[in-house]
From TrEMBL:
Belongs to the sigma-70 factor family. ECF subfamily. One of its GO terms (molecular function) is sigma factor activity. Pfam families: Sigma70_r2, Sigma70_r4_2. Residues 124-173 form the RNA polymerase sigma factor 70 region 4 type domain. Residues 26-86 form the RNA polymerase sigma-70 region domain. This is RNA polymerase sigma-70 factor (ECF subfamily). InterPro entries: RNA_pol_sigma-70-like, RNA_pol_sigma-70_dom, RNA_pol_sigma70_r2, RNA_pol_sigma70_r4_t2, RNA_pol_sigma_r2, RNA_pol_sigma_r3/r4-like, WH-like_DNA-bd_sf. One of its GO terms (biological process) is DNA-templated transcription initiation.
Length: 195
């Protein structure tokens, strides 16, 4: 079989037929982004990795029964979120993440950040405001601005309506704007996109 597959539907179909190279390509293409998404739910890196590994094991075992997929990233995010939800239900609590330090680390990871981040007080304010967002708002921002999912894809991943996604994003940006008064909405979105 040819490699690499460029169309998700082609790659998924090959994987469902038992092509181990296609399976490996899916894993390699999406592991890092799934791991970053998992950090929004769990702090324990081992548990994040184990959950992703379990997802891929389940995919391999059930590949013959899987439906065609046109957007593998979307399918994996939706599946992983469901798995994290099950973990939370089973344990009755998902660990509290130190969001402030997580966002400060993400902000510091960029060398080409505009001058606005040269101000440590502003980057700490941004991290603190992001940490104050309810978990659902933070997840919606992550899916929209970090992972580039559409409103309808976010609604499907989070099991909420399109209108709720729009309202959640609007409320999140309004809250950020309220706490970062010196910045426009566009500046706030730019800051979010950069970290």
């Amino acid at each position: 079989m040819k490699l690499p597959y460029h169309q998700d539907s082609e790659l998924w179909a090959a994987f469902c037929k038992g092509d181990k190279a296609a399976y490996a390509q899916i894993y390699e293409r999406y592991f890092d982004v799934l791991y970053a998404y998992g950090k929004k739910f769990l702090q324990d890196e081992t548990r994040i990795e184990d959950t992703i590994q379990d997802l891929f094991i389940t995919l391999w075992r059930t590949r013959l029964r899987l439906s065609p997929v046109d957007n593998i990233k979307f399918y994996l995010f939706r599946s992983l979120r469901r798995d994290f939800y099950r973990i939370g239900q089973k344990e009755k609590n998902i660990e509290k993440i130190d969001l402030e330090s997580l966002f400060i680390q993400e902000l510091e990871a960029f060398d080409d950040v505009p001058n606005i981040f040269d101000d440590p007080a502003l980057s700490q304010r941004l991290a603190k405001v992001l940490a104050k967002l309810p978990k659902r708002q933070l997840e919606a921002i992550t899916l929209r601005y970090y992972e580039n999912f559409s409103i309808s894809e976010i609604a499907d991943i989070m099991h909420i309506s399109n209108k709720t996604v729009r309202n959640t994003l609007t409320n999140s940006l309004s809250l950020l704007r309220k706490h970062l008064k010196s910045l426009s909405y566009q500046s706030i979105i730019s800051l979010i996109l950069l970290n």
